[in-house]
Amino acid sequence: MKREHNYPIGTPGTPWGDEEKAQWLAQTTIKRSYQEEVVRKINALENDFDITQYGALSYDEEKYPLFAIKTRHWDSNKPIVLVTGGVHGYETSGVHGALTFAEAKAAQYSEQFNIVVAPCVSPWGYEVINRWNPNTVDPNRAFYADSPSEEAASLMAMVDSLGGEVLVHIDLHETTDTDELEFRPAREARDGKLFIEDGVPDGFYTVGDSENPQPEFQKAIIDSVRKVTHIAPPDADGNIIGSPVQQEGVINYPLKALSLCNGITACTYGTTTEVYPDSERATPEQCNDAQVAAITGALDYVIKQLG
């Protein structure tokens, strides 16, 4: 039987007001350094890529600049590939998988594509290891006009400035045990709803677009990742996180309707990756490598389609 859970902030059934949001913010703490763990790695790539700052978060503009890593010799005749990580800052392999791809693999795909990598869309979230920003807004539900999320608005403006159509968008995420232990309970409390536990899938999966599912593209990603780590099985109802499994390791969401990051472009090929870092069968290095394998599997597939 699935348990119910009451979050320690707020009154069950009543949406949070300013007092509860301030109480939530007051209990967050800095746990790691964006400057040391992320910005330093971005700067180390400046000899091989164009590093552009596309914004800064008003919470602390000096501490939280926003960066994009772009392949050089940008050519308007090449299709654009967008890789995003750290939209949810607490999802570590999304950030470091994006950085690893930029460092180790991006150059070899630059003949076919213009590539832009935004490795850490939510640096405050990275430091406090949280899904939300300081205003209790989930950036990955806020990719729409006049967004309440600075993180989402800044990324959308950067993508608009690229001056071309994005063909491929790969958004790197994780599904963690804390989704059930902390973040879903907090969300339901914030919204005045009852939290009923679900479960966390053990393994890698992708989220495609229900309006443009591209099943062969998703399969290519799964087949690439399975060489690195295991693929998430469906639960007893044939679902992963409550959504029907379309094929091994693949579910679909209405990305634009949900204002998700992977819905910000009209790309032909889009996917959201989901790594499970809390698995006994996966190490942090494997999680990063799985993200890289997802990107390379996706790009290898698209190159074949373009050929």
UniProtKB/TrEMBL annotation:
A GO biological process of this protein is: proteolysis
SUPFAM superfamilies per UniProt? Zn-dependent exopeptidases
InterPro entries in the record: Peptidase_M14
Supply the Gene3D superfamilies for this chain: Zn peptidases (3.40.630.10)
**What residue stretches are annotated with the Peptidase M14 domain?**
30-307
Q: Which domain of life is it from?
A: Bacteria
Please give the CDD domains that the UniProt record associates with this protein: M14_REP34-like (cd06231)
Q: Which Pfam families match?
A: Peptidase_M14
The record's GO molecular-function terms, alphabetically, read: metallocarboxypeptidase activity; zinc ion binding
Family per similarity comment: Belongs to the peptidase M14 family.
Q: What is this protein called?
A: Peptidase
Organism from which the protein derives: Photobacterium lutimaris
Lineage, please?
Bacteria, Pseudomonadati, Pseudomonadota, Gammaproteobacteria, Vibrionales
